[in-house]
Amino acid sequence: MLHTINQSPFRCNSLKTSIRFILPDDPVLFLEDGVYSVQDNNTFKQTIETLLKTNPVYAISHDINARGIKNTIKDVQLIDYEGFVDLVEKHQVNTWF
C-alpha cells in the first residue's frame, strides 16, 4: 500500500499516526506541506531515517522546491509528477490527512 502524507508534521499528527500502520516495504510519499517531514536536520529526521530502514520514502520534487527546501534527508527519493502517477498505478493508496 502507498501511504501519502500531505500535511506539515509541525501542524498535524499525520506522520506520527501513519507510522503505526505502515508495513515494511510499503512506499511512503510526502507531498504538498508533507514534504517538510523530509527536510534535513529537523525534529522528524530520526523518524524518517528509521522509516527508511524498512520502506522506500519519496517526496515530490516540485513541492520541495516550492517550499524552498534545500536539503532533504539522505536516501529520500525525489520524484516528479510522472513518478507520482507511477506509484499510484502500482499501489492501493492510503492518504493521511
Can you put this structure into words, describing what you see?
The structure is a single chain. Helix content is 31%, strand content 19%. It has 97 residues and is an alpha/beta fold. A five-stranded parallel β-sheet has the order 4-3-2-1-5. The mean pLDDT is 97. The protein has helices at 14-19, 45-52, 61-66, 81-90; strands at 2-5, 28-30, 57-60, 77-79, 93-96. It contains four helices and five strands; from the N terminus they run E-H-E-H-E-H-E-H-E. The protein has one domain (2-96): Hypothetical Protein Ychn, Chain: A, CATH 3.40.1260.10.
The topology string of helices and strands comes to EHEHEHEHE
Which CATH class applies here?
Answer: Alpha Beta
Envelope shape: globular
Instruction: Indicate the proportion of strand residues.
Output: 15-25%
- What is the total tally of β strands? 5
Number of helices: 4
Query: Could you give me the name of the CATH homologous superfamily?
Result: DsrEFH-like
Structural class: alpha/beta
Q: Overall mean pLDDT score?
A: 97
Give Rg in angstroms.
Answer: 12 Å
According to CATH, the fold-level topology is Hypothetical Protein Ychn, Chain: A
Low-confidence stretches: none
Widest beta sheet: strand line-up: 4-3-2-1-5
The domain count comes to 1
How would you sum up the major sheet? 5 strands, parallel
- The CATH architecture category equals 3-Layer(aba) Sandwich
Portion in helices: 25-40%
